[in-house]
C-alpha cells in the first residue's frame, strides 16, 4: 500500500476536469513504469527491513504492490472501467514476467555452475576409475551413448514418420486414415516412461535381450514418430496443389510426383520438424533410465551391453549427492542444454532459409 | 493414381524421366512403383497403429501376471512391497500424488498461461510478439532432467522461506502446515510441473486467441470498450473450448512427467494431510526410482502401475483431442 501513497502526488496535477470535455482524465504514459520501479523499491525495502531471506517473497511483494497500486491509482483518476483495464494489463504483464523468471534462472544456474567443470578433460574422459566423491572424470561415454541412441532412434522413426505423413496427406481417405490421425495425436501424449515400460516388457522381459543402447533407442523412436508425422503432415499440406496437378498432368506417376515434386518443395520444413523432434528426444531421460542400465565406462556398441547417456548421467550424478558429483551434473546439464539449443537454432535457421523457396 | 493411364498416352519428354521407354513399359513400371509406394506408406501408418495396440497388449499381459501374485488390493493398499514375499502393493498413494500434483500444476499454470497467451496475442508490441513466443517455446525445449536438477538444487532451497510464511498464516488449515526440512514435497512438484507445462498450454491457447474473429473485436472497440472488455466479451468466450483442451493437454503432460518429479520429490508411501511436507509419490516417479531394486515381480508391478498411468493419460489426451476436433468442425 505504501507504493500508492508515495505516488499519489504524481497525477494530482490534472484532477478530474469539468464535465464539458469529452476526454476522460488519463494517467501520464510513464505512470506504469514509475509505479513498477516504486513497487520494486518498496518490495526490496520490506524484504531487507523484515529480514525475509527468500528473494521469491521480495518479488511477490513487489508484484502485489504494483498490481494493487495501479488499480487504486487508475480507479481514483480514470474511473472504474479504465481501472479494470489497467488491472488486466498489469496482471498479464505479471504473468509474462512470472514465466520468464524461471527460464532465466534455470539458464543462469546451469551456465554459471556448469561452466566450472566444463573443459577439454570433462568432454573427453569417462568416469572409469573415478569415485563419485572425487572431482574429475567426464561425460565422454555419456555423449557417445546419447549420440548413438538418438541416431538410431532417428534412423527408425524418421522414415516411418515421413511415410505415414505422406500416406495421410497424399493417399489418406476413409477410416484407416482417420484412425491413424487420431492415434498419432494420442501417441503424442504417451508419457515417456510408458514407452520405456513397453520396450522393457516386450524386448527385455519377453524376448530376453539384455539392457542396451538399442533398447533405449527403440523407446525414443516411439516418442519421436508422432512428432515427425505431425510436423511433416503440416508441411506437406502447405505444398500448393497446382504443383501436384501440373506434374500429374505431364504424365508423371504419383509416386514420382511425391518423391520429385512434393517432398523437395517441403524439404526445409520437414528437416526442421525432424530436428526439433531429435532435440526433444535427446533430453528424454525416463525411458533411458529403464533401458540402457547406465555405465561408467566407454561402450561404443549400442547393441551390446550397458551404455550411459547424458540425461542418465545427470540423474546418476545428482543421485550420488555430493559436491563433486553435483558439479558434474551441472556440467552435463550444460552440455545437454547446449546440444538441444543448437539443434533448435539450426532447425529454425533451416526453416527460415528454406521458407521463401517453398513459397515460390 | 487413376490419372496416369489417361495421360501417359501422349508422353512429353520429362526432365525427370531419364530412360525413353515405350509407353506400355513405363505404364507398368509406374503402376508397380505406385503400388509399392502406397504399400510402404500405408504400411507405416498401420505400423503406428500396431505399436499403439502392442503397448496396450504387452503392458496388460505383464500387469496381469503381477496382479495374480499381489496379496494386497491393487487400488486401496497403502504400500509398495512388490519384491517382498508375498508381494503386497497398491497404487492408492501414487494415484493421490499424481492427481494432486498435476492439479496444483494446472491451478498455477493455466491462469498464467492464459495471461501469457493474451500478452502475446493482444498486449505485446507487434515486434516483440514473435521473439516472445520463441522464448516461451524455449521453455519447452529444456530437458526434463535439467528441470529436475534445477528444481532440486535451486528451487527447493528457495521455497523454504515461502513455505514457512504459508505455515505461519495458513498452517491452521492443515493443508499448508510445514515442518522443517527440505521442501521436496508435492506442492513443490506442482510448481515445477506448472513451469514445465506452461509452454504447451500457452501455445495452444495463443493459437485460439489469434483466431478470434477480428470483426467482433473491432465492433467492441467501436462501441468504446476498453481493451480488457474486448477480451472479456469477444476473445475469451470464443476461446473457451480451446482453453479447456489446452489445459487438458497440459494435464496429460503433468500426469506422465517422470524425471523432474523423481529428482525433486522425497517419496514415502503414506498420504499426509499437508501438501508442503515431504512425502507422497507419483506413478512415473515411483517407476523410475524403484526400478533398479526391483526383481521380476517388482518390475511387473511397476508395469501394472504404468498401465494405469497409460490409461489415465489416454483418457485425458483423448478428451482434449475430441474437444479440439469438435471445435474445428464447428468453426469450419
Automatic annotation (TrEMBL), chain A:
<keyword id="KW-0812">Transmembrane</keyword>
<feature type="transmembrane region" description="Helical">
    <location>
        <begin position="87"/>
        <end position="108"/>
    </location>
</feature>
<feature type="transmembrane region" description="Helical">
    <location>
        <begin position="150"/>
        <end position="169"/>
    </location>
</feature>
<keyword id="KW-1003">Cell membrane</keyword>
<dbReference type="GO" id="GO:0005315">
    <property type="term" value="F:phosphate transmembrane transporter activity"/>
</dbReference>
<feature type="transmembrane region" description="Helical">
    <location>
        <begin position="30"/>
        <end position="50"/>
    </location>
</feature>
<dbReference type="InterPro" id="IPR005672">
    <property type="entry name" value="Phosphate_PstA"/>
</dbReference>
<comment type="similarity">
    <text>Belongs to the binding-protein-dependent transport system permease family. CysTW subfamily.</text>
</comment>
<feature type="transmembrane region" description="Helical">
    <location>
        <begin position="211"/>
        <end position="229"/>
    </location>
</feature>
<keyword id="KW-0813">Transport</keyword>
<dbReference type="InterPro" id="IPR051408">
    <property type="entry name" value="Phosphate_transprt_permease"/>
</dbReference>
<feature type="transmembrane region" description="Helical">
    <location>
        <begin position="181"/>
        <end position="205"/>
    </location>
</feature>
<keyword id="KW-0592">Phosphate transport</keyword>
<dbReference type="Pfam" id="PF00528">
    <property type="entry name" value="BPD_transp_1"/>
</dbReference>
<dbReference type="InterPro" id="IPR035906">
    <property type="entry name" value="MetI-like_sf"/>
</dbReference>
<keyword id="KW-1133">Transmembrane helix</keyword>
<feature type="transmembrane region" description="Helical">
    <location>
        <begin position="56"/>
        <end position="75"/>
    </location>
</feature>
<comment type="function">
    <text>Part of the binding-protein-dependent transport system for phosphate; probably responsible for the translocation of the substrate across the membrane.</text>
</comment>
<dbReference type="GO" id="GO:0035435">
    <property type="term" value="P:phosphate ion transmembrane transport"/>
</dbReference>
<keyword id="KW-0472">Membrane</keyword>
<protein>
    <recommendedName>
        <fullName>Phosphate transport system permease protein PstA</fullName>
    </recommendedName>
</protein>
<dbReference type="InterPro" id="IPR000515">
    <property type="entry name" value="MetI-like"/>
</dbReference>
From TrEMBL, chain B:
<feature type="transmembrane region" description="Helical">
    <location>
        <begin position="132"/>
        <end position="156"/>
    </location>
</feature>
<dbReference type="GO" id="GO:0005315">
    <property type="term" value="F:phosphate transmembrane transporter activity"/>
</dbReference>
<dbReference type="GO" id="GO:0005886">
    <property type="term" value="C:plasma membrane"/>
</dbReference>
<keyword id="KW-1003">Cell membrane</keyword>
<protein>
    <recommendedName>
        <fullName>Phosphate transport system permease protein</fullName>
    </recommendedName>
</protein>
<feature type="region of interest" description="Disordered">
    <location>
        <begin position="1"/>
        <end position="25"/>
    </location>
</feature>
<feature type="transmembrane region" description="Helical">
    <location>
        <begin position="45"/>
        <end position="67"/>
    </location>
</feature>
<keyword id="KW-0592">Phosphate transport</keyword>
<feature type="transmembrane region" description="Helical">
    <location>
        <begin position="301"/>
        <end position="320"/>
    </location>
</feature>
<feature type="domain" description="ABC transmembrane type-1">
    <location>
        <begin position="95"/>
        <end position="320"/>
    </location>
</feature>
<keyword id="KW-1133">Transmembrane helix</keyword>
<dbReference type="GO" id="GO:0006817">
    <property type="term" value="P:phosphate ion transport"/>
</dbReference>
<dbReference type="InterPro" id="IPR000515">
    <property type="entry name" value="MetI-like"/>
</dbReference>
<dbReference type="Pfam" id="PF00528">
    <property type="entry name" value="BPD_transp_1"/>
</dbReference>
<dbReference type="InterPro" id="IPR051124">
    <property type="entry name" value="Phosphate_Transport_Permease"/>
</dbReference>
<keyword id="KW-0812">Transmembrane</keyword>
<keyword id="KW-0813">Transport</keyword>
<keyword id="KW-0472">Membrane</keyword>
<feature type="transmembrane region" description="Helical">
    <location>
        <begin position="186"/>
        <end position="205"/>
    </location>
</feature>
<comment type="similarity">
    <text>Belongs to the binding-protein-dependent transport system permease family. CysTW subfamily.</text>
</comment>
<comment type="function">
    <text>Part of the binding-protein-dependent transport system for phosphate; probably responsible for the translocation of the substrate across the membrane.</text>
</comment>
<feature type="transmembrane region" description="Helical">
    <location>
        <begin position="87"/>
        <end position="120"/>
    </location>
</feature>
Amino acid at each position: 500500500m505504501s507504493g500508492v501513497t508515495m505516488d499519489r502526488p504524481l497525477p494530482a496535477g490534472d484532477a478530474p476536469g469539468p464535465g464539458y470535455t469529452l476526454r476522460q482524465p488519463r494517467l501520464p504514459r510513464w505512470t506504469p513504469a514509475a509505479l513498477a520501479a516504486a513497487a520494486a523499491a518498496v518490495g526490496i525495502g520490506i524484504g531487507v527491513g523484515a529480514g525475509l531471506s527468500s528473494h521469491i517473497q521480495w518479488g511477490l511483494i513487489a508484484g502485489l504492490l504494483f498490481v494493487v497500486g495501479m488499480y487504486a491509482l487508475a480507479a481514483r483518476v480514470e474511473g472504474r472501467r479504465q481501472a479494470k483495464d489497467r488491472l488486466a494489463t498489469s496482471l498479464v504483464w505479471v504473468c509474462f514476467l512470472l514465466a520468464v523468471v524461471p527460464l532465466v534462472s534455470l539458464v543462469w544456474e546451469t551456465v554459471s555452475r556448469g561452466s566450472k567443470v566444463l573443459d577439454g578433460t570433462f568432454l573427453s574422459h569417462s568416469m572409469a576409475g573415478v569415485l563419485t566423491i572425487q572431482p574429475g572424470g567426464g561425460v565422454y561415454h555419456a555423449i557417445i551413448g546419447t549420440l548413438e541412441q538418438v541416431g538410431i532412434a532417428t534412423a527408425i522413426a524418421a522414415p516411418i514418420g515421413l511415410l505415414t505423413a505422406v500416406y495421410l496427406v497424399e493417399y489418406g481417405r476413409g477410416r484407416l486414415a482417420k484412425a491413424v490421425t487420431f492415434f498419432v495425436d494420442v501417441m503424442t501424449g504417451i508419457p515417456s516412461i510408458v514407452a520405456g515400460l513397453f520396450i522393457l516388457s516386450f524386448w527385455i522381459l519377453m524376448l530376453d535381450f539384455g539392457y542396451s543402447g538399442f533398447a533405449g533407442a527403440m523407446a525414443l523412436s516411439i516418442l519421436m514418430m508422432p512428432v515427425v508425422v505431425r510436423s511433416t503432415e503440416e508441411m506437406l499440406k502447405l505444398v500448393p496443389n497446382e504443383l501436384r496437378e501440373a506434374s500429374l498432368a505431364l504424365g508423371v506417376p504419383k509416386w514420382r510426383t511425391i518423391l520429385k515434386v512434393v517432398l523437395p518443395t517441403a524439404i526445409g520444413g520437414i528437416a526442421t520438424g525432424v530436428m526439433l523432434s531429435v532435440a526433444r528426444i535427446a533430453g528424454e531421460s525416463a525411458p533411458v533410465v529403464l533401458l540402457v542400465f547406465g555405465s561408467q565406462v566407454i561402450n561404443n556398441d549400442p547393441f551390446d551391453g550397458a551404455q550411459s547417456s547424458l540425461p542418465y548421467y545427470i540423474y546418476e550424478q545428482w543421485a550420488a549427492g555430493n559436491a563433486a558429483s553435483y558439479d558434474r551434473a551441472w556440467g552435463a546439464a550444460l552440455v545437454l542444454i547446449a546440444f538441444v539449443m543448437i539443434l533448435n537454432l539450426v532447425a529454425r535457421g533451416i526453416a527460415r532459409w528454406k521458407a521463401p523457396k517453398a513459397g515460390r | 493414381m487413376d490419372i496416369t493411364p489417361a495421360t501417359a498416352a501422349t508422353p512429353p519428354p520429362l526432365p525427370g524421366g531419364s530412360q525413353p521407354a515405350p509407353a506400355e513399359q513405363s505404364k507398368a513400371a509406374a503402376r508397380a512403383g505406385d503400388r509399392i509406394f502406397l504399400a510402404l506408406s500405408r504400411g507405416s501408418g498401420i505400423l503406428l497403429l500396431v505399436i499403439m495396440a502392442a503397448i496396450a497388449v504387452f503392458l496388460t499381459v505383464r500387469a496381469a501376471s503381477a496382479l495374480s501374485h499381489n496379496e494386497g488390493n491393487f487400488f486401496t493398499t497403502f504400500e509398495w512391497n512388490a519384491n517382498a514375499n508375498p508381494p503386497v502393493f497398491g497404487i492408492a498413494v501414487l494415484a493421490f500424488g499424481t492427481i494432486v500434483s498435476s492439479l496444483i500444476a494446472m491451478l498455477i499454470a493455466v491462469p498464467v498461461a492464459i495471461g501469457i497467451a493474451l500478452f502475446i496475442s493482444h498486449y505485446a508490441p507487434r515486434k516483440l510478439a514473435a521473439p516472445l513466443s520463441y522464448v516461451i517455446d524455449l521453455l519447452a525445449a529444456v530437458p526434463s532432467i535439467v528441470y529436475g536438477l534445477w528444481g532440486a538444487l535451486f528451487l527447493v532451497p528457495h521455497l523454504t522461506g515461502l513455505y514457512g510464511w504459508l505455515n505461519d498464516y495458513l498452517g491452521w488449515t492443515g493443508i499448508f502446515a510445514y515442518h522443517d526440512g527440505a521442501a521436496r514435497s508435492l506442492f513443490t512438484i506442482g510448481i515445477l510441473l506448472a513451469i514445465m507445462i506452461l509452454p504447451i498450454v500457452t501455445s495452444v491457447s495463443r493459437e485460439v486467441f489469434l483466431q478470434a474473429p477480428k470483426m467482433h473485436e473491432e465492433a467492441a472497440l467501436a462501441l468504446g470498450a476498453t481493451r480488457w472488455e474486448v477480451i472479456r466479451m469477444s476473445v475469451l468466450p470464443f476461446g473457451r473450448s480451446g482453453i479447456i483442451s489446452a489445459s487438458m493437454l497440459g494435464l496429460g503432460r503433468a500426469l506422465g512427467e517422470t524425471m523432474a518429479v523423481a529428482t525433486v520429490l522425497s517419496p514415502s508411501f503414506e498420504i499426509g494431510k499437508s501438501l508442503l511436507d515431504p512425502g507422497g509419490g507419483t506413478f512415473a516417479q515411483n517407476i523410475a526410482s524403484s526400478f533398479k531394486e526391483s526383481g521380476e515381480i517388482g518390475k511387473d508391478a511397476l508395469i501394472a502401475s504404468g498401465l494405469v498411468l497409460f490409461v489415465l493419460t489416454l483418457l485425458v489426451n483423448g478428451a482434449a483431442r475430441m474437444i479440439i476436433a469438435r471445435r474445428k468442425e464447428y468453426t469450419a
